[in-house]
Amino acid sequence: MTKQIPFKFEASVSNDDKAVLYLHGTVGGYWEEINFEDVRNALASFQGNEIEVHINSYGGDMFEGIAIKNFFSQRKETVTVIIDGLAASAASIIAMGADKILMPKDTQLMIHNPWTFAYGNAKELRKVADDLDKAQVSVEETYLKRFKGDREELKALLDEETFLTADEAVTLGLADGIYGEGEPEEVSNDAENNVLDSLMAKYGTDEHEDKGKRNIERFAFLFTQKRGEQ
User: Fold this and answer.
1) What is the DSSP letter of 6?
2) 125-151: b or e for each residue (b if 16 or more CB lie within 10 Å)?
3) In the 8-state DSSP scheme, what is residue 116?
4) Torsion sign over Cα 140, 142, 144, 146
5) What is the CATH number of domain 8-227?
6) Is 193 exposed, middle or buried (0-12, 13-18, 19+ CB in 10 A)?
7) Rounded to whole angstroms, how far apart are CA atoms 153 and 181?
8) 3-class DSSP state for residue 215?
9) What does the pLDDT look like over 129-154, one tens digit per residue?
10) Rounded Cα distance, 79 and 136, in Å
11) Is the pLDDT of residue 12 over 70?
């Protein structure tokens, strides 16, 4: 059984010039979760020039992720995000606030449309759908600041709940480099015909790796195991 990512929030200043943060676990506003207030407080007195942020998270609350992303993007220091394992959903949004995003070869980035659990009558559920449409615009604007394609191409990836390898993320502009290595490699040609294939061919490489890495059912399982009642 897949286990949730253990919560880990650490902040340290290795010298007067650099701060290092570890954001591991669920993005949200609750106790023992990654939240805006903890991130802001950790850097409240920092006066250096570089912030290094390590992320490993299935995601969580979209707006908490956007708040943290905007906090990083507004900092005067150079912010570098390093993905330690997975940056999915709201965690991938946080990463977009960095000046530079680096991914080791064995890590992944996952992007998808906003979703929620809901109950109520027809009128109430229609409002939930309308609210999700507005949230969708916020998510798209976040990724479009980096994404090499256009809005419709991004929407197609979001619709598929796409898992991106490090090489794929770099090729599409959603990451800047492979951590500890040089240029990203071209992904092997498996001749699959789908949205990601065509975008990889258009923006730099031929084909993507095993489609199972971005399987919707897999992410839904991981997320529900992690969030429980949410």
Assistant:
1) P
2) eeeeeeeeeebeeebeebbeebbebee
3) -
4) negative
5) 3.90.226.10
6) exposed
7) 28
8) coil
9) 898 889 899 999 999 999 999 999 99
10) 26
11) yes
Each residue of 194-209: pLDDT tens digit? Answer: 777 778 787 875 444 4
What secondary structure letter does DSSP report for 205?
Answer: -
Token pair 């992007």 is found at 111
| Residues facing residue 216 across a β-bridge | none
With contact defined as beta carbons under 8 Å apart, do 79 and 98 qualify? yes
Instruction: Return the bridge partners of 155, or none.
Output: none
**Measuring CA to CA, which residue among 19, 96, 104 is closest to residue 53?**
19
**Which residue's entry shows tokens 């912030």?**
51
Read off the tokens for 47: 């006066």
Task: Determine what percent of the chain falls in helix, strand and coil, rounding each to the nearest 5.
Answer: 40, 25, 40
28, 64 contact by CB (below 8 A): yes
* Global confidence as pTM: 0.78
Residue length of the chain: 230
* SS3 call for 182: coil
Tokens 């040609």 -> residue: 189
Torsion, Cα of 166, 168, 174, 177 (10° steps): 50
User: Which distant-in-sequence residues (6+ apart) come within 8 Å of 171 by Cβ?
Assistant: 148, 184, 200, 203, 204, 205
